Amino acid sequence: MSVIELEDVIKRYQSGVETVEALKGVDFSADRGEMVTVIGPSGSGKSTMLNMIGLLDTPTEGHVHLDARDVTDFSEDELTEERRTGIGFVFQDFHLLPMLTAVENVELPSMWNTSVDRHDRAVELLRRVGLGDRLDHTPDQLSGGQQQRVAVARSLINEPDILLADEPTGNLDQDTGQTILEELTRLKEDENVAIVAVTHDDQMLDYTDTTVRIVDGVIQEVAQP
Ligand code: ADP
Ligand code: ADP
Question: Most exposed residue of 94, 126, 141, 148, measured as fewest CB within 10 angstroms of its CB?
């Protein structure tokens, strides 16, 4: 059962008098416990696709299904709520707040959420990514790999269905990138999340369950290694 699905999605941008068709009828799906990696040349529509999957933008035509619900016509407020509860984000440049400690950064997205014990879960997640002894460190006291592990823990605080990773190893050396990919692979199973990643890092494909190649707004190839 797919947790996220794009159905015949077309996305057009208006730039001046010109219309750019960034996605030309894209079908996509990801299951819980699956890592799907999207690859393709620059300008091919990867970010646009990630924005659709992350409910950050809406299609011009076609449908988006989250957990078997059609969310295409949801209002901006409803989409924000779905993003908060259902989707975790990991970025190339970590996006941690510099004045907060590791555990505070992890807790932050759950500030509105009274149904979980935020602090305990934040501590537990940091332990699980090997940072149990770095809880009170600020980002400048952590290495790049450690900062990305904090970001991974943060992305999971609200028990999302989907984790979106935009070049998660892009700012890390090869060995550090590998440890992050190992963490993601383990957490994907433990937390039963779908991971959708965009990358230029070939080593990521070794950890991927499904590779989707997009060229010029069209899915060219779906490979299961
Ligand atoms: P990628 O992530 O693969 O580099 P993008 O999804 O960013 O590709 O872009 C796909 C196409 O859509 C490109 O031609 C890009 O110039 C265009 N595009 C993306 N965002 C916008 C926007 N906000 N306005 C106009 N054109 C855009
Ligand atoms: P790109 O890969 O095109 O350079 P980014 O990696 O900066 O873009 O961001 C990818 C997408 O995620 C963008 O559409 C952006 O609006 C969105 N985004 C950036 N920061 C956040 C955030 N903190 N929470 C949710 N979405 C974000």
Answer: 141
Residue whose tokens read 């959708």 = 196
Looking at the CA of residue 14, tell me the nearest atom of ligand 1: 25
Number of domains observed in the structure of the chain: 1
Handedness of CA 211, 170, 87, 120 (dihedral sign): positive
Residue 64's CATH number: 3.40.50.300
- ipTM, 2 dp: 0.72
Q: Which domain holds residue 121?
A: 4-223
- Which among 144, 29, 158, 53 has a CA at the least distance from the CA of 92? 144
Question: In this predicted model, what pLDDT tens digit does every residue of 101-149 receive, in sequence order?
Answer: 999 999 999 887 776 688 999 999 999 999 999 999 999 999 999 999 9
Q: What is the pTM of this model?
A: 0.88
User: Does residue 154 line the site of ligand 1, with CB under 6 A?
Assistant: no
